[in-house]
Amino acid sequence: MYVCSCFGVTEKQVKEHAEAGACTPRQIASASKAGTDCGSCVRRIQALLGRGNCPRRELLDQGMPALTAEVTDLSEAA
Questions:
Q1: φ, ψ (nearest 5 deg) of residue 20
Q2: How far apart are CA 56 and CA 40, in angstroms?
Q3: Quick check: 26 and 36 in contact, CB under 8 A?
Q4: What is d(CA 8, CA 58) in angstroms, rounded to the nearest whole number?
Q5: pLDDT by residue (tens digit) across 7-35?
Q6: What phi and psi values does residue 39 have, to the nearest 5 degrees?
Q7: Residue 35 phi, psi (nearest 5)
Q8: Would you give the end-to-end CA distance of the chain in angstroms?
Q9: Residue 34 φ/ψ, nearest 5 degrees
Q10: Which one has a higher pLDDT value, 60 or 18?
Q11: Residue 47 CB-half CA count within 13 A
Q12: For residue 41, what is the DSSP state?
């Protein structure tokens, strides 16, 4: 099933990118362009990624300061 009609990205491709380490819609966009045109697929991508499945998120929860700064920088850039 297609997640991103603009770039022909499938649910399977999003899951493969997530398994390879993409934890956020922005990282999925960097890997596949999904979500970078009309943006209507971003919520679906977020749903596929879920919560808590990202090793970087686990490190952030443990209080790793470098990751905290990086995530804050990315949040401000959005």
A1: -80, -5
A2: 26
A3: no
A4: 31
A5: 999 999 999 999 898 999 999 999 999 99
A6: 80, 0
A7: 90, 0
A8: 28
A9: -60, 130
A10: 18
A11: 7
A12: T
pLDDT digits 0-9 by tens, 36-45:
999 999 999 9
- For residue 52, which phi and psi values (nearest 5 degrees)? 80, 5
Task: Determine which helix (DSSP H) or strand (DSSP E) holds 2, and give its type and residue range.
Answer: strand 2-4
Q: Is 9 helix (H, G, I), strand (E, B) or coil?
A: strand
The amino acid at residue 23 is C
The owner of tokens 């999925």 is 28
Contacts 24+ apart (CB under 8 A), 50-58: 53/18, 53/23, 54/23, 54/24, 55/21, 55/23, 56/23, 57/23
CA separation for the pair 60, 78 (Å, rounded): 19
Residue 50 sits at the vertex; the CA angle it makes with 59 and 67, to the nearest 5 degrees, is: 20
Answer with the residue of higher pLDDT: 16 or 69: 16
Cα separation, 31 vs 33, whole angstroms: 6
